[in-house]
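Hey, I'm writing a tutorial for new members on how sequence and structure tokens pair up, and I'd like a real worked example in the thread rather than a made-up one. If someone can provide the structure for the chain below, I'll link this post from the tutorial.
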Amino acid sequence: MADQLSPDEKLDLITRNLQEVLGEEKLKQVLQERELKVYWGTATTGKPHVAYFVPMSKIADFLKAGCEVTILFADLHAYLDNMKAPWELLELRVKYYEQVIKAMLESIGVPLDKLKFVKGTDYQLSREYTLDVYRLSSMVTEHDAKKAGAEVVKQVEHPLLSGLLYPGLQALDEEYLKVDAQFGGVDQRKIFTLAEKYLPSLGYAKRAHLMNPMVPGLTGAKMSSSEEESKIDLLDSKEDVKKKLKKAFCEPGNIENNGVLSFVKYVLFPLRGEFCIKRDPKWGGDKIYTVFEEVEKDFAEEAVHPGDLKASVEAALNQLLEPIRKKFESPELRKLSNSAYPSASKTKAAKGAKTGGGGGGGAGGEDNELVPSRLDIRVGKVIGVEKHPDADSLYLEKIDVGEPEPRTVVSGLVAYISQEDLQDRMVLVLCNLKPQKMRGIESQAMLLCASIEGDPRRVEPLDPPEGSSPGEQVFVEGYETGKPDDKLNPKKKVWEKLQVDLKMSDECVAQWKDRHLMTKLGQITCKTLKGGNIS
């Protein structure tokens, strides 16, 4: 098909449905001489969802226009973005992304032999690339780096240096992948303009940038992996698809922030060139549209009912998802999925991949899977203990956890340990629970203890290794590099879900799923409660 298209026709196909193009004159110039080279990148964080069909359908356009397309699995970006992907899972997630992205492309009829797949760490750890990172970091100001990543890199109260490196690495990828243009979501715009500003300073060419709009999710806001109700997982069953579409925001006549209509516009029409509204003959029967604007017009005028629109999208979406579901029925891919996302269930797993240019492309979110590194557990020292003024069964403790001021902790240890034995004791404290009042006094953390189920008289505070100091971080083996949440969202019940798998071994060593809890000095233990629970 591409051989039969003129440069202007190729440009129309490359740019259709995009929200913005930077460097269109460069595109025209290249297309007069040869085929365009373009790349799309995705940070391998949370599980991809159906909004990824938006960049996939655009990639199909690029191939029809004769473009040479590279897909980058940005594993290093996934780690730099506030450690959304734990280091030990990066390789597994790259494999998962490669399998699921290829399955998506196959489901929409894209020939894989015309695509080039690249993993970021295959070249981003080279001597040349690393030197360019240093060169770039000597030019880019902190202000520019932070501004560039504001809509892409996870924003936290105390940002890591890695998040400031992220935009610069994405800019360098354009040079090292030897492309003419980068494709991503419009949320990538500030990173794109940073690339245009600074790459020439390194002696590299300024590239063009192609930007997809951000697709509304099923709730009317941006489709996000971090909002379960806003997205449909690629492996969701037909029943789950029906249930989620039934709840989707699709107000009669309202075409603003309508995720169902957007899916028709940005996925179904580009792929099929038409869309069929299926309905009962008494309501006019089926109607085939060949132009999206006619669908939008009929919906705005309430000639198309939301229920009929949802049912028609449901049928079309299931056709796209069925080949992916079948592919992932294999034992090997089920094992890969469970290994790459070890604590995530089918309906809760996808927590925020940003697709396109290191993570955009019309989809967005954040990665909040259930891993123990989200817990901020520290060594503490009890520096004061007294009875709660309004409850004889509670202690009021002051615990040094390595901060300027001690934390106030309310615990029910009165029945198990004397004030004298608790005073000056080294303990373990969970520090990122939401503070809550207990009999009128706010408890700012939780003192962790071992206990025996069914025997309320047997409770012991957990013991850190000898020589420990207040504030030392406690981690689970294999999850050493994760960063704790600033505050655990009580509605998500992260602590409650992780706590179920916290146990004492038969050797009185604290464990999570048979992995030891540790500090840099050794294992966390208790004195006598073998096989006990931890709470």
